[in-house]
Each structure stands twice: as structure tokens, then as C-alpha cells.
Amino acid sequence: MSLLRVSPLAGLLSAALLLTGCFNEADKTPQQSVDQRLRLAMLQPPRSGLTPLSDDAFKLSRWSTAETLVVLDKMGEAKPALATNWQQTGDNRWRFELRPEVKFHDGSALDAATVVNALTVAAQAAPKPRILDGVQLTAEADGQLAVIVTTAQPDPLLPQRLSSPQLAILSKKAYSADGTVNPRHTGSGPFELVQVNGTSSARLERFAGYWGKQAKASGIDVSFVPDGTARGAALRTGSADIVEAIPVSQAPLLDQRLIHEVPMPRTNTLYLNTKSGVMQDAALRAAVRDAINRQQLVDNVYEKRADVAQGLLGPALPWAAELRQPVSDPVTAAKPAGETITLATFSDRAELPEVAVYLAQQLTAAGFTVNQVVREYSQIESDALAGKFDAFILSRATVLDSGDPVAYMYSDFACKGSFNIAQLCRPEIDQALQKAAAIPAGNARREAIMRAENLILSTDAAIPILHERVIQGEAADIRDAVRDPRERTLINAATQRVSQAG
After folding, report:
1. What is the secondary structure of 426-466 as a DSSP string?
2. Distance from C-alpha of 88 to C-alpha of 99, rounded to nearest angstrom
3. Is 464 within 8 Å of 451 (Cβ atoms)?
4. Which 3 state secondary structure label does DSSP give 219?
5. What angle do CA 59, 259, 498 make, to 5 degrees?
6. Under a CB-based contact definition with an 8 Å cutoff, are residues 74 and 88 in contact?
7. CA 480, 193, 408, 302 torsion: positive or negative?
8. What positions does the domain Solute-binding protein family occupy (predicted)?
9. How sure is the predictor about 35, in pLDDT bands with cuts at 50, 70 and 90?
């Protein structure tokens, strides 16, 4: 099947038209300022209709429209949200007490039955939300305002797991018989999602019945702007108040007072296909490992706004470097003899195609023949997961779900992991991850995590390149936008636009 090719100019014009439609002059009227609406430009459009069972859940949490039973603090500790407290009542059982007098946007009340319904739908979904990879979970009511959550195996991090936006609690009206989940008018956060215009925009309004402090902004106007140049222009021209993920190439063109670097638990990693193609050969994977010049990528592509990777887990987890041990007896690299590699990545993150160009040059210099494939993420994810590429460059959040990297490692590197692009299956890695997962939070768990990382790195199935910092744009009159390394919150009840006159 032939692919439709769109010129860079056409893409830029499309992005400009999108901005014109979503950030028009009417947004700058005095009335709009009085209304205190926030204009937000986001990187990726919804991929799954904004169902919380997918990665779209993180949009719902960044808009503060869908809430979870618990949230995580900066240290990754579980704190109350829709649940006020909890305790472990058995090896496999936890009891969560629910916050009273919480109303959903449709007017219904939070109760145990609602929570049981939401968690049961997530546990029985196909595919499951990533946070539930390898977890069998059931929930039952314990009176009106308490829930018992039981897991097939002991899960010492269950509260942290339930903080994942993919396990947000929506009202019963959100869940239909055909398995779809609609977050419109069904969340419980300070902002109510009232309108979604496909993959172009969304609109939220302040929810007057919120159980916590009222939102200072009257609403949020969201536009999905995949083009990085267009997002940078939105901040520069004042068309957007808050801009997500400004490309490093755009940062020097902007007022430096308006951009903020947030260290991310996000690693730019090269995944190599261990199941089919030339990368089945461990010695050729080692040759790829030795050919990569990480510093060149940090300096030239990321303009020094990133950190060279020493492992899968970066400086956002400061304990990782302290506990990391070098791989013992690394595989000796073979001498490439022109073997062809299909190197793929996606264009949604503006730096990745440029990373691919540099990697292709480095691998060609090492003796490989490299073919490149670049598409939008929505058009390439299924092929990557199916193992159709020899190598795939991915910008991957390493503690996105539970605040703990075990879930990410299981998803990406366990035999049954749902995001196993490397097609990796090693019993010793599965065993190490299972052991780490069984240990309560603390130093012993961290040490077990780093032993698992060491085993993964020894396969050269995933070659960490660099750790990213996200660049967030905020207009001069914006106050209290959230700079969250976990990318869970961006706008909350305190976020507001302050009158220039004030």
C-alpha cells in the first residue's frame, strides 16, 4: 500500500490553520480576560477517544477533570484524594475509605458501588490498562463509603498503583455496555469536560460542585497541536497561555522567562528487536550499543537540554545512579558487514526524527546499512509492538504509572509485557521483576529494581541514550501552572491568569 507524503510546508500550514481556528482574536477580548479561561496547547491528540483505560488518561489528569483514589507526592508516596485513608488488612487485601460528599459532574455521588464499578471495568478491560500488567485485581464494597481491593498476589505498592490516571474513578454513566468509556460530564475534578472536537480541541468548565477548593480559572480551552513549531509560535504570539512540550529547537527563539525546564523520568531509548531480523544476534546488538555517540545527540539535537544516559533510570530518580552497578561480562561486539537495519521512530516529538538521522549516520559509520521510517505515533505504534522494525527510538516515561519503575520495566521487558517493543523474553528478567514487585517501598526494593535494570541492560535489547527535560511554556501572566515530572498534572484548581492591570 502506498503512503501519502505530505510536504513539510503543508504540515506547517496545517498547524498554522489549526492555531488560527483554535486561538483566534476573540480569545484576546477583555471579556475573555474577565472570564479567566486558560488556553492550553497540547502535544498529542487523543488516540483512544479519551478513555481513561488508555494513555489518554493522562490528558484527563493534566486537566484536573478525572480523579483517582490516591495521588503521589514529590517523593512518590501515596496521599489521599478520593480515598481519605487506607490500610492493608491481609497479604492480598487493602481497605480504602472514601471521601464523603463528593459529587461527579453529572450530579451523582461518589460511593463504594461507583468505585467498584470503575475498578472492575479496568481490571476486565482488553487490553488492560498498562498499570495492571501482570496484576489480577478485584474490588468489592464494604458499606457505602469503603472498598476492599484484593489482588491475586501480594502487591505492596497497591496504593501507588491506584494513583495511576488509568484507574481514575468516573461516575457509572461513563461506562457503556459496549466497553467504551466517556469522560464527558462524568469526572469529579475541579474542571468538567463538556466538549471534545475529535482530535482538534476540547473544552472544560469550572465545576461549581467540586469537593475541594474551587478552581480559580473559569475553564480551559484545549487545542491539540502536534507541530512543535506551531506550539512555540502559540507561546511567542500570546495565542496560548500554557504550552506543553516545546521542542528544544524552538526554545532559543522564545523569551527565556516564559520557558521552564522540568527534569523528567523520561528516557530516550533505542529498542532492538530480539525476536526477528538481524538484531536477534546479540553480538550485532552489542555493535549497535558501541556505535552510539550519546554526547553528540545531547549536544546537537537537544542543545545540551538533556542528560547522557548511564542506564534506563535517570537523574529524576537520584537513587538510581547510587545503586547502579556496571554490567558484568558484556557481550563482545561483532564487526558489522553491511547488515540492513530498519530504524523507526515517530514525528510527534520533534527531536526524535533528528535523533534518527544522527543514529543512522553513527550506525552507517559502524558498518550497518540503515533504512529509516518516520510516521506519526498513532500510525506507527501497532507496527512497533508487532516487531516490524529492527530498531525503534522511543521517548519513554519510566515512572509514569505508579511512581515506581517496576511497572514500566514489566510492561517493556517482561515476556508478557504489553509494551514489549524489543520482543524480549528472558526468565531471569521476569524473575528479577517479580522479586522487586514483591518488596515493600524502600531501599531493598530500589536495590532489586537496579538488579533488574542490570539484567535488562546486559541483553542490549534496550540501549538508553539520554534522559530528557521537558520544556513547558507559560505566559507571563500565568500563575501556579504545575510543573510535574510525572506529567500527571498541568492545570489544577490554583492555576490562573492574572490581569496585566493587576
Report:
1. -HHHHHHHHHHHTSPSSHHHHHHHHHHHHHHHHHTSEEEEE
2. 18
3. no
4. strand
5. 80
6. no
7. negative
8. 78-418
9. low
3-state secondary structure of 66: coil
For residue 360 the three cell numbers come to 543512522
Mean pLDDT of 44-61: 93
What region does 434 belong to: left with phi over 0, alpha with psi -120 to 50, or beta?
alpha
Q: Is 223 left (phi over 0), alpha (psi -120 to 50) or beta?
A: beta
User: Is the model's pLDDT at 59 over the cut of 70?
Assistant: yes
Q: Which residues is 202 bridged to in the sheet?
A: 196, 222
What would the DSSP string read from start to end of 111-122?
A: -HHHHHHHHHHH
Q: Left, alpha or beta for 485 (phi > 0: left; psi -120 to 50: alpha)?
A: alpha
Chain-wide mean pLDDT for the chain? 90
Residue 241 CA to residue 69 CA, distance in Å, equals: 30
Phi, psi for 54 (deg, rounded to 5): -120, -175
- The full set of domains in the chain, from first to last, is 8-65+189-241+475-497 (3.40.190), 70-174 (3.90.76.10), 263-469 (3.10.105.10)
For 265-304, how does the pLDDT look when each residue is reduced to its tens digit (9 = 90+)? 999 999 999 999 999 999 999 999 999 999 999 999 998 9
Across the range 350-369, mean pLDDT stands at: 97
pLDDT for the residue numbered 30: 36
Per DSSP, the three-state class of 181 is strand
Task: Give the pLDDT of residue 77.
Answer: 80
Whole-number pLDDT of residue 400: 63
Helix (H) or strand (E) holding 89: strand 83-90
Per-residue pLDDT tens digits for 378-398: 999 999 999 999 999 999 989
At residue 312, the 3 state secondary structure works out as coil
Least confident among 91-95, 220-224, 442-446: 442-446
How far is residue 206's CA from residue 208's CA, in Å, rounded to a whole number?
6
Among residues 172, 163, 188, which one has the least CA distance to residue 100? 188
Can you read off the three cell numbers belonging to residue 157?
Answer: 505498592
Half-sphere exposure of 154 (CA within 13 A, CB side): 12
Across 349-374, average pLDDT: 96
Contact 408, 397 (CB under 8 A): yes
Locate 459 and state its grid cell: 541483553
**pLDDT > 70: what percent of the chain?**
92
d(CA 403, CA 79) in angstroms, rounded, equals 12
**Gap between the Cα atoms of 376 and 357, Å rounded:** 16
Chain position carrying cell 481556528: 21
| Average pLDDT value for residue range 103-131 | 95
The model's pLDDT over 166-202, given as tens digits with 9 standing for 90+, comes to 999 999 999 998 889 999 999 999 999 999 999 999 9
Give the distance from CA 286 to its chain's centroid: 29
> Which phi and psi (to 5°) does residue 361 adopt?
-65, -45
**Position 113: which residue type?**
A
Strands (E), 91-170: 93-98, 137-141, 146-151
